[in-house]
Amino acid sequence: QVQLVESGGGLVQAGGSLRLSCAASGRTSSTIAMGWFRQAPGKEREFVAAITWSYADYADSVKGRFTISRDNAKNTVYMQMNSLKPEDTAVYYCTAGSSRQSVNDNWGQGTQVTVSS
After folding, report:
1. What are φ and ψ of residue 45, in 5° steps?
2. Side-chain-facing half-sphere of 68: CA atoms under 13 Å
3. What pLDDT does residue 1 have?
4. 95-109 pLDDT, tens per residue?
5. Distance in angstroms (rounded) separating the CA atoms of residues 32 and 83
6. CB under 8 Å to 85, separation ≥6 — which residues?
7. Which distant-in-sequence residues (6+ apart) come within 8 Å of 55 by Cβ?
């Protein structure tokens, strides 16, 4: 079992930046892959980004604007979000798993990001 706690959400104007953090605790073998998903009002939950020990991948909608990174010593994953758009407004969830394929096995409680136009 792994526990994930997100922080860093908030309200920002379009074009602004935010950095999300997610601290993991518990079974570290379940944090080989960590990621972010989001869910906007009235929409399905969608993949945003994921990172393993060796690479990161992104949804096309955030490529070039969002950067995922991790601090293994702190068992924490970050997501720097730049050039934010109103359509980025969503609840952002941190996830973790023992492989890239299972990155969404464990979920945090979510943090709200609101981008005003």
Report:
1. -70, 140
2. 25
3. 85
4. 999 999 999 999 999
5. 29
6. 14, 115
7. none
- Structure tokens given for 32: 């080989």
One-letter amino acid of 42: G
Burial class (CB in 10 A: 0-12, 13-18, 19+), 15: exposed
Residues 30, 46: contact at Cβ < 8 Å? Answer: no
Single out the residue of 28, 21, 110 nearest to residue 73, CA to CA.
28
Amino acid at 38: R
Instruction: Decide if 21 contacts 81 (C-beta within 8 A).
Output: no
- The pLDDT tens digits for 28-80 are 788 899 999 999 999 999 999 999 988 999 999 999 999 999 999 999 999 99
